Fold this protein.
Amino acid sequence: MEVVRITANLTVADIGAAAPFYREVLGLREVEFDLGWVTRLTAPDSGASVQLVSADATAPAVPALSIHVVDVEAAYEEVTALGLDIVHPLTTEDWGVRRFLVRAPDGTVVNIVRHAR
């Protein structure tokens, strides 16, 4: 699996209430996207980012990490062959990504994702 980026997903009860800390204190001023239930805040100079997540629009769990990969289909085949727990099947989502959620052996739910072309 070729990983191109990893994004931390922080579960928060209220994105609007949580975001000012990350913007004002940590300087993550750029809002890359905001779907209401998830928003990515980024430092304009370094590109460091975090996603604040209050729920997941289509999956039964909020993933702790988003792992951005080159080939999401190959990644899905790989984790399926390993017999890992698929929490959310390989899906093309309305917001422009193709992804699946897998539970790591330690119980952490991970979003494996590729942006649609």
Notes: The first helix runs from residue 15 to 25.
